Structures are given as structure tokens and as C-alpha cells.
From TrEMBL:
GO biological process, one term: riboflavin biosynthetic process
Protein name (Swiss-Prot/TrEMBL): Dihydrofolate reductase
GO molecular function annotation: 5-amino-6-(5-phosphoribosylamino)uracil reductase activity
Pfam family for this entry, one: RibD_C
Transmembrane segments: none
Protein's organism: Agromyces ramosus
Chain ranges of the Bacterial bifunctional deaminase-reductase C-terminal domain: 87-174
InterPro entries per record: DHFR-like_dom_sf (IPR024072), RibDG_C (IPR002734)
């Protein structure tokens, strides 16, 4: 069974977006290099970032996101992002009216059910949980194996927190990955059990 990883780009003060969902310069690192990260022609990173991110992306089988992210991305037009096989959407509402039931999106009520569904779909591949409220719920429930952060050199001051509304202490191991790229510091922590 693959691991469950919480992941996002984050400001040095711990925010993944402003209150209005604008990430501001948090993704500047994704266009600050000369190595194509994918076939889009848009994402170009440093060699160090590529060597860290590309193998990780290639291992992701399923992404778990909240309904809010699903809604603001317009459901990625029915195609999971970045070549991912499936998206599990944590929601108390059904799929949008007219949604293609054959699309690789699964609408699940509750974080435990979402992680169970994602693990089933991912097999031995990685389950990625979007940071924010859904990621914080997964961490608080003891369902996250690793925390990955792409720390951008920006202070947002306020906004949507990386760990969402987590209000209790959770211990991580020392970082087992620390990589400096252009406009980013990549960090990985295993969750202490």
C-alpha cells in the first residue's frame, strides 16, 4: 500500500493562499527555472526542483481535495490534474448536476472514507492530500504518513493555513529532505507515530 502525503506550496508564515484563494507569488518557483516539469510548456523549474518533484509526481495515483478546491477549479474540467489517475473529493454534497459519472472523480463524505477510497484506488502508489482544511483533518485523524512543503520566500501575513484548522499538537520527525531550488525550499517530514 502506498503512503499518504500531505503536500502544497506554502509561505514562510504558513499560508497556502490568501482568504480569497489567491496564492499570490507562492507558485513563482514553478516558472523560475529552465527545466520543463511537464509537457504544458508553462512549468519550468530549477534542476534541483525537477529532480525532487518529478519522481514524486510520477508516484501519485490519487489526489484528495475538498469540495471548495473542486469548485474553484471547476472540477479541472473533468480531467484529474497533472496526469493523476483519480481525484477523491471530500464533500457533504453530491456531484454537481450534470457531472459525468464516468469521470475519474469520486465524491465521498468524510476524511476517513476519502482516504480509504483513495488507498483502494491508488494501490501501491502515493495518495496525495491537499494541504489546508482537508489535509489538516487527515493529519488530525492520524492518516498522514508524510508532510511535504514547497516553501516560497514570501510572507502572506494572513490567509488559508497549510494545516487548516488543526488545533492540537502533532509531532513530525526531523526533515529527511531539504532541497533548495529557485524561489523555493523543498522540505519533507515523516509524521511521528
Amino acid at each position: 500500500m502506498g503512503k499518504v502525503v500531505m503536500n502544497a506550496s506554502v509561505s514562510v508564515d504558513g499560508f497556502i493562499a490568501a482568504e480569497n484563494d489567491d496564492p499570490g507569488p507562492l507558485f513563482e518557483w514553478l516558472v523560475s527555472g529552465d527545466v520543463p516539469l511537464d509537457d504544458s510548456g508553462v512549468l519550468n523549474v530549477s534542476q534541483a526542483s525537477y529532480d525532487h518533484i518529478r519522481p514524486y509526481w510520477d508516484q501519485i495515483g490519487v489526489t484528495i481535495a475538498g469540495r471548495h478546491v473542486f469548485d474553484i477549479t471547476d472540477g479541472w474540467d473533468g480531467t484529474p490534474p497533472s496526469g493523476i489517475d483519480h481525484v477523491v473529493v471530500v464533500t457533504h454534497r453530491p456531484a454537481p448536476e450534470g457531472w459525468d459519472s464516468n469521470a475519474a472523480f469520486h465524491f465521498v463524505d468524510g476524511i476517513e472514507a476519502a482516504v480509504a477510497k483513495a488507498r483502494e484506488l491508488a494501490g501501491d502508489r502515493t495518495v496525495e492530500v491537499a494541504a489546508g482544511d482537508v489535509g489538516g483533518q487527515a493529519l488530525a485523524a492520524g492518516l498522514v504518513d508524510e508532510v511535504r512543503m514547497d516553501v516560497a520566500p514570501v510572507v502572506l501575513g494572513s490567509g488559508k493555513r497549510y494545516f487548516g484548522s488543526v488545533d492540537s499538537q502533532h509531532l513530525l520527525e526531523d526533515p529527511n529532505v531539504v532541497i533548495q531550488g529557485n524561489r523555493v525550499l523543498h522540505l519533507c517530514y515523516r509524521v511521528r507515530r
